[in-house]
Model the fold of this input.
Amino acid sequence: MEKGQIDFANDSVWKMIFRLAPPVMAAQLIQALYNIVDSFFIGRCSEEGLTALSIVYPLQLLMIALAVGSGVGINTAMAFFFGIKKEKRAAETAGVGTPLAFVLWLLFALICYLIMPFYARISTDSEMIRADVVRYGRIVCVFSFGLFFESIWTKILQSKGNMKLPMTAQIIGAAVNIALDPLLIFGWLGLPKLGITGAAISTVIGQTAAALIVMKHGFYKPPALKKYWVNIRNIYRLGTPNILMQSAYTFYIFGLNMILATFSDQAVTVLGLYYKWQTFFFIPLGALQTCIVPMISFNYAQQNTKRCRSILWDSFIAGAVLMGMGTLCFLFIPSQMIRFFSHDSEVLRIGVHGFHIIGLSFVPMAVSLLFPVFFQAVGSPFKSSALTVIRTVFLFVPLGWLFARFGLYYFWLTYPITEIITSSVGFAMFSRFGKNKTTTPCKV
Done:
């Protein structure tokens, strides 16, 4: 083992979390600034543009789901092969990453370019908002190659415990985005005033800058063509639950947007603002999700189920404490959080009540979102996917529709009730872990 490298088999769980999590949290904090900064500047330029960002957001989540989920599959498979001392197989898995990123980007860019006008029409009745949706959406989706490559290369690096270079890349990428946003949105320093188009251009340039930084160490020589199938099968056996979990956000947020649109455009804006802040407050949880996958996968490969349990329980404690801080913010300073983006009185009125109720879901959410990651890491994709489907398909949108029948104020109860039910189901599934024979998550 190289000097300074983390020992997944013997280091204390808290030591690993404290070594792995801070760089990931810093990187995700910077990543969160992409959406927050865009919304901050667009909110001062146009309320219609702010609503357009909320409408495009589910498509951005879908894009991230495909990119990051595929990367997680690579990450998990590599950690497994490292655990059984098959470094060559880990390198082959990494080599599939770059061609896979290219294909995913090409397909996503083509589909989104074609469907964007239709998506805008079904999302709002305002012609001005529709135009903004098409302009912003086409740019951030068609030119998303930086996001796809950076996501894959970052996960390859993280599988080996390298969290610092991805953090540096995302810091620089976000800094580029933040610097360009006001210049291109408002036309500072003699540049053209591009409005929402400028925000989209700034985003994709920042993503490309981040990708270039991790390219040198994240790029591996692709394996022989005959080895692609087994590697891709391993990647998506392990990565599909993460893709499903993240892409489900797209569909349930779209569904919730449709429900809220029956009340007002301001209600849709509030939901979009919540997800902007959610991205920020979920950084600790996202870091835990990222860190525990290789930790659990490595130990599961060595059939150390007791240590897998210990990693999960300690992650629950850390996640609950950190998410409790988010609850306090949503309970006590919701108006300040909303005014950061919008000064519309109706948005403020709806948002304060909504934020109060949604904030109650944060602590149980720390549990409900760590269980799918755990099951993914131990090669139980059915349980991981089942929890995601239960949460997003059978609970979020149906409960949202049901509570909306009683009025907008009741709609927000969807969040805490969904997370409590999902956590309960997760505990029921987890109760059987370790009682059956250990299975192999990857084909060797």
About this structure: Residues 47-83 form the longest helix (37 residues). The two ends are 22 Å apart (CA to CA). Residues 13-430 form one domain. The CA atoms of residues 71 and 418 lie 28 Å apart.
